[in-house]
From TrEMBL:
Pfam families: DUF4136 (PF13590)
Keyword Nuclease: no
Entry keyword set: Signal
Protein name: DUF4136 domain-containing protein
Source species of the chain: Mariniflexile soesokkakense
Superkingdom of this protein's organism: Bacteria
Domain called DUF4136: residue spans: 25-185
Signal peptide (UniProt feature, chain positions): 1-26
Length: 189
């Protein structure tokens, strides 16, 4: 039991650290769309301009999407089959951890059967909880049929975002690649 109590805080920390690095992905698409006919793309400026993120992050995302589509054999075009748009959302998450509890905490003795007088002793104890905040971001990538002006595929990636500039490029690459792995529908391993 003591070993379990010592291991629990470590396991909780490991879970938090590993969950920070993952991107959860969901997709939706038009089942009537013939995805094999889409060969060219362009960015839908009107939709992209509405995304509420910095221009620097927009450029990072657009470069990552372009690289993914080029790797899939698409060609950038002035007369595209697909228009690419994006939008983002973010939520602040507050986590409260109280992992400093259990038998063996240092405290002050008291009168009664547990304490032999007023002075230091062992007993049940607890500390103030630790509070942390993280920003969870959602990136939506929309693929729009350029002729019909209809959404045919949407990928959504959800995960924790960083404000550290050095890691931002890497994190954006991870979001985009995880989302674009799911395009076209039916090609996932």
């Amino acid at each position: 039991m003591k070993k379990l109590l010592k291991t629990l805080p470590f396991l909780a920390l490991l879970l938090v650290v590993t969950s920070c690095s993952s991107v959860r992905v969901a997709t939706d698409f038009d089942k009537n769309a013939n995805f094999s006919t889409y060969k060219t793309f362009a960015f839908f400026k009107t939709g992209i301009d509405k995304a509420e993120i910095s221009d620097l992050d927009k450029r990072r995302i657009l470069r990552a999407i372009e690289a993914q589509l080029l790797a899939k054999g698409f060609t950038k075009s002035d007369n595209p089959d697909l228009l690419i748009s994006l939008f983002t959302k973010s939520n602040q998450r507050v986590d409260v951890y109280n992992n400093s509890w259990g038998y063996g905490a240092w405290g002050w003795g008291g009168w009664g059967p547990w304490g032999g007088g007023f002075g230091p002793g062992w007993g049940w104890g607890w500390n103030q909880p630790n509070v942390s905040t993280r920003t969870e971001g959602v990136l939506y990538i929309d693929l729009i049929d350029a002729n019909k002006k209809e959404l045919v595929w949407q990928g959504m990636g959800t995960g924790y975002i960083t404000q550290h500039m050095e890691k931002k490029e890497e994190r954006i690459q991870e979001f985009v690649s995880k989302i674009m792995e799911k395009y076209p529908p039916g090609t996932q391993q």
